[in-house]
Every structure is written in structure tokens, then in C-alpha cells.
Write a structure and sequence with these properties.
The structure is a homodimer. Chain A is globular, with a radius of gyration of 20 Å. The first copy, chain A, starts with 6 loop residues before the first strand and ends in a 6-residue tail after the last helix. In chain A, the strands form 4 sheets. In chain A, strands 2-3-4-13-5-8-9 form a 7-stranded mixed beta sheet, sandwiched between helices. Chain A has a 3-stranded antiparallel beta sheet with strand order 11-10-12, with no helix packed on it. A two-stranded antiparallel sheet of chain A has the order 1-14. Chain A folds into 2 domains: about 90 residues, Malate/L-lactate/L-sulpholactate dehydrogenase, four-helix barrel (Hypothetical Oxidoreductase Yiak, Chain: A, domain 1, Orthogonal Bundle); about 170 residues, Malate/L-lactate/L-sulpholactate dehydrogenase, NADPH binding domain (Ribosomal Protein S8, Chain: A, domain 1). By secondary structure, chain A is an alpha+beta fold.
Chain lengths: ~350, ~350
């Protein structure tokens, strides 16, 4: 698929996205942070969380007044390793960027930190924030809640969002390990990709209001139903995916002085756009010498990549090294964009009186 | 099933297990810690990690000299929020108990803590350690690696253990939320239960050396193969279960100054019994007032329990409250034990010259 799609330059796409956000009223520095995070996703092949959302999701929410483009971020701290950020309903990218830096700074002092953020909005891919720890030789964590779209086992009514967990672990000569997993069987963005490309979705992603599988992605959530937690069925561990998502909701919402997303939906002031997050960092050399650690991670990655494969399987895919390879290729050759995404960016340029130069 | 099984008193089972461990050479205090953790699992219905393992697993390993019953635990710390424990190849229960206390004490001072432990052995159910945080109004975490039994996606050779993650979150009037999830589709202990009860296992738990599903539990790992990561298949997110397990291996092994279990297996000194762990604690009132937090967790649990259900589903099961209900019933009426487990405990009593009085 990616072979046939037009390629756009990473730098150009970042500048275009920054300018669009500025035209939408986002201050320059915040527009740069947001554009950088969006394009970093496309670069790593995580197209479900990249510029495809720039106009339809973030842009339109800004225009509808659902996101405060000039938030006053506040940090409250009652202990050396912890803090809570109030995002003032700002762009989740900006809240996330500053909250993760807060976590990194605290871990530098105490070895381990945990920072929560409330009154924020959709922050894109959790991996970006976790990865911010890497250049500091730290392990980074992040997770977030959002509007419920995933059902509880036994119910067909959404109870939690796809509440992702991201963890980034530095390696030495190998690319870092980067996990970024929705706690549903698939990320919501993958359903959007299926709609965009006219593909069916597998059984196990979405159920209807009767609990029956939905395979036509355009029929998702029509008349009820929702996405399934990771595991998919009781015998294959659906309680695990749901339990992990539930815990991520608690660490994001209640632990930031907010509430779980299922409760937030019932509050009069909620407008379906509220999100809370958490961020953590571990300074590796407060546990073990950093060079030993990195060698040990490299050895693990090498051993995994060398595992015997089932016939027909080309390679063992490791989260992090896999995306790093995609990023390297796209940095050289440009980021392939779906024609529908290009149309949407052109429309955005027109709406904002910008030149489309990608 | 549990209706027909003989019931044994919790206190008696704890005393019996303590005495057996003492006869095996474990000092009294460590025997008490170990017995308490084992029986706590059976009490909460987690029979895959309870006294069924007392003779066959822990007892026999002690007798074979694979576990050091009089370890010298050492704690190394280079930052206020972090520490590493060397378990001196002691019982994992004892290492885990002391390492989690270390995490709790550090979180009391700094708000958030992370403690790793190396040179340990199988520590039973991860939930027990996470739950130790609850009485301190903290959120607790724990995870562990062990001998590889779970395959990497695309391989049929075990790469990691079922590397569980446990998280315990205090509630107010409701029982606490307690997640304890193997990152495989099922916990290894559930396969043992299927063997004990003569049941088949579902497709998606185990594959053979060709990558084909195994449903006869007695044929697991015969001639190769292994358990599948949570998600089970690529389209339902097997990379997520594997990625989470991989991260848990890194946090347990390399971050404690040890190595990933796949590497440990190749070392001459490894005897298939080595395990590393991690433990974390978050002091809730360093983020938000504890009463607000607990009310918020209660509200979430109540809202989840009140969700509309799919026809035929009796109730929405929440991890933690579900097990608390089982524990309450078993505390009153005794713990049901499988006849094969009773036979094994009788044999253990005979071997150790103890009276069997359960």
C-alpha cells in the first residue's frame, strides 16, 4: 500500500502542521510541539495517530471551542517524586510534553517519578512521551484515559476508552524498546484506517448492542456496542485487557484529582473532549550502571531476533526496533500519505488561507 | 466444582503450610510469610498459585537445593525513590515481601518508588505484593520474569515467561481494585488445573513446535512449542501481550542488574529456577486527598457494576471486588481443595513426619 502513496518530506510536513496550528490560534511554541509529535507518529508508521487527525479531529475541536489554545498550565506537588498538572483544557500534546518533562526532572533527583495530568485533551500517541525519557538514559512511561469506547466484559455499553500504555526502554547499539499498546484489541485509529481504505475489520475488534461481532467498520457503534478489550473473549483473557484499561483510567483520572472517564461523561461540564494522563520516569543508573543495562537490553533484542521462526515467518518483530526501521526509511524517502489524508490537508490549507506546498 | 470439594480452614491451612516449610528448613518468620502468601491466593480463588504448589513446586525445589532457605538479603540504593535487592537465591515470597516493604517505605518519603530484586526465585502471585500497599493508602505494583514458557509472535520457541503484572488500587467502601494478569492468554497454573481436572484447554493458549494449536494440556511443550502471548493472534493484538511481557522482563531482569530470562537460561550457573522482580508504590495523598480519591474509585466501581448487560450475563465482574467476595465466603466456610491437592499435602506431611490435620 505505502508504495503507491505519495511521499511528503518530514520537515515540510512539520512546518505545514505548525503553520496550520498557528493559524488556528495555537501559540508558536505549542504549535511546534504539537506538529512535532503528530509527524513523529507518521514517521514511525503509526498512521492512526498522525496528521490524518490534524484537521478532522484537533483542528475542528479547536474551531468548536472544545480545546483551549492558550491554557495556563499549573503544577502542584506535595512530594519530591510526584506532581499533578492541571492542563486547563489545553492541547493534550502541550500538556503531555510539559508533564513528561516534569517527570524526567523529578526522576533525575529521586530516581523514580510519577506525574499525573487532569483537564487535558487527546494527546495523540502515548509512545512519544515515554520516548522523551530515552535521551536522559531513563525508562519512560505514559498512559491516558479518554471518552469511553471500549465495553466491559459482559456489557455492550462503552465503559473505558482504549486507554493505552506506553513504555520506552533505552538500548545500546540497538534501537530502544518502545511499547505503545491500546488496551483494546485494536486502536480506535485502526478502525478509521479501515474505513478510509474500504477494508473489513476482523471479528474481535467491535461488537454491536447485542454483543455480536461487527466486521463492517462503517457500522461501528451504530445503535450501541463498542470495541472489545484486549483478549477479546473470556477464555482468551478479555478480563486482562479490561483490567489493565481500568487501572490506566484510575491512574489518569482519580489519581490526578479528576474522575474516571465513565463518570466524567455524566458531568454537565463534560463535552466529550476531556482526557487525563499519567507519566513516569526511572533513572536507570539509580538501579544499575547504564552501560551494563544497555548491553543487557541489546543482548535480549539480539536473542529475540535470532529465535527460530515458524515456517512462513520472515522475522521476529520487536516493538521499537521495528518502528525505528520504518522511521529511518521514511526520514530518507518521505512519509507516505493516504490520498484522503492529502485531500483533507489541502482542505485545511484552503480553510486557513495557507498555501499547500507538500 | 468447588461445592463438591472438601473445605479446609484458612488458619489451619496456614499453620500446616508454615510447619511444612519449617520442616523443609525455612526459618520460622520466612515460613510464616510464605505460607500466608500461598494461602491468601487460595482464599481469593487464585488456586493456580496457592498450596497446590507447596510440595510439588516449592518443596521439591528446596529439597533439590535450588532455593536457598537461609538467604542473606541485601539492599543497594543510589537514590531516594529507588533500590535494588539481591535475593541470594532465597524463596521469592520472602524476597518479594521485603522488597515491597522497601518500596512502601520509600514512597512514604518521596511519593513514588520503584524497587527491583535480582537473584530470587518464583514468588507466587504478583497480586499479594501489590496489595501490601493498600493498607498504607498507596497504589501498589509488582511484576516478575521467570523461565521462558511463552513464545514470541512468529516463533514457536519460548522467549519470555508469562511475566505477570499486578496493580492494586485502594477504594473506599468498595473492595480495592486488584489486577493480576499474566501477559500470556492464560496463566501457566491454569494449564496445570486443566491437567488435574482432566479438561481440554481452549485454542489460543498453547501452540506446538509447528505453530499449531494444542488443546490437550498433557501435550503442552512436548517436542517444543509454548504458550501464546495475550492477544493470541496478530489481528487481535498478540504483539501487545508480548510487548508488555517483554517490558516486564526488562524491568525485572536488566533493571535489577540481572539479565532477561531468555539470556539467563544460556548462562552456565542458571538452574532453571532464577527469577527477578519489580515493585512500586504511589502514595495517593501526594497527588490528591485520599478521601476524594477513594470516593472517585467507588463511583467508578458502582458505575461499572451498574452497566447494562448483554442478555445471559448475570453481572459485570470487576477485578478485586470479585476476588474479595470469594475470599469472604471462603474465610467463613473454608477453602475448597481439589482431592489431588489434598493427596499431595498428605504425602508432604508423611514425607516430613508431620501430622495431617486439615
Amino acid at each position: 500500500m505505502s508504495e503507491e502513496r505519495p511521499r511528503v518530506d518530514t520537515g515540510k510536513l512539520t512546518r505545514f502542521s505548525t503553520e496550520a496550528l498557528e493559524k488556528l490560534g495555537v501559540p508558536k511554541e505549542d504549535a511546534e510541539i504539537t506538529a512535532r509529535i503528530l509527524v513523529a507518529c507518521d514517521l514511525r508508521g503509526v498512521e492512526s495517530h498522525g496528521v490524518a487527525h490534524l484537521r478532522m479531529f484537533y483542528g475542528n475541536r479547536i474551531r468548536r471551542g472544545l480545546i483551549n489554545v492558550t491554557p495556563k498550565l499549573q503544577v502542584f506537588s506535595h512530594a519530591p517524586s510526584t506532581a499533578v498538572m492541571d492542563g486547563d483544557n489545553g492541547l493534550g500534546f502541550v500538556v503531555g510534553y510539559h508533564a513528561m518533562n516534569e517527570a524526567i526532572n523529578r526522576a533525575r533527583e529521586t530516581g523514580a517519578s510519577f506525574v499525573t495530568a487532569r483537564n487535558s485533551t487527546h494527546y495523540g500517541a502515548a509512545a512519544y512521551y515515554a520516548m522523551m525519557a530515552l535521551e536522559h538514559d531513563m525508562i519512560g512511561f505514559s498512559g491516558t484515559n479518554n471518552v469511553p469506547i471500549v465495553v466491559a466484559p459482559g456489557s455492550s455499553v462503552p465503559a473505558i476508552s482504549s486507554n493505552p500504555l506506553a513504555v520506552a526502554v533505552p538500548a545500546g547499539e540497538k534501537p530502544p524498546i518502545v511499547l505503545d499498546m491500546a488496551t483494546s484489541t485494536c486502536a480506535g485509529g485502526k478502525i478509521e484506517i479501515a474505513i478510509r481504505t474500504g477494508s473489513d475489520i476482523p471479528e474481535g475488534w467491535v461488537i454491536d448492542s447485542e454483543g455480536q461481532p461487527v466486521t463492517d467498520p462503517t457500522k461501528r457503534f451504530r445503535g450501541g456496542g463498542g470495541m472489545l478489550p484486549l483478549g477479546g473473549s473470556p477464555e482468551l483473557g478479555v478480563y486482562k485487557g479490561f483490567g489493565l484499561g481500568l487501572v490506566i483510567d484510575l491512574l489518569s483520572g482519580p489519581l490526578s484529582g479528576s474522575v474516571a472517564s465513565l463518570i466524567k461523561e455524566t458531568l454537565p461540564e463534560a463535552r466529550g473532549n476531556y482526557s487525563d494522563h499519567f507519566f513516569g520516569a526511572l533513572r536507570i543508573d539509580s538501579f544499575t550502571p547504564i552501560e551494563d543495562f544497555k548491553k543487557s537490553v541489546d543482548a535480549f533484542i539480539n536473542a529475540l531476533e535470532a529465535l527460530p521462526r515458524i515456517p512462513g515467518v520472515d522475522r521476529i518483530t520487536i516493538p521499537g526496533p521495528y518502528e525505528a526501521e520504518i522511521a529511518e526509511e521514511r526520514q530518507s524517502n518521505g512519509i507516505p500519505l493516504d490520498p484522503k489524508v492529502i485531500d483533507d490537508l489541502k482542505l485545511l490549507a484552503e480553510e486557513l488561507g495557507m498555501e499547500y506546498d507538500l
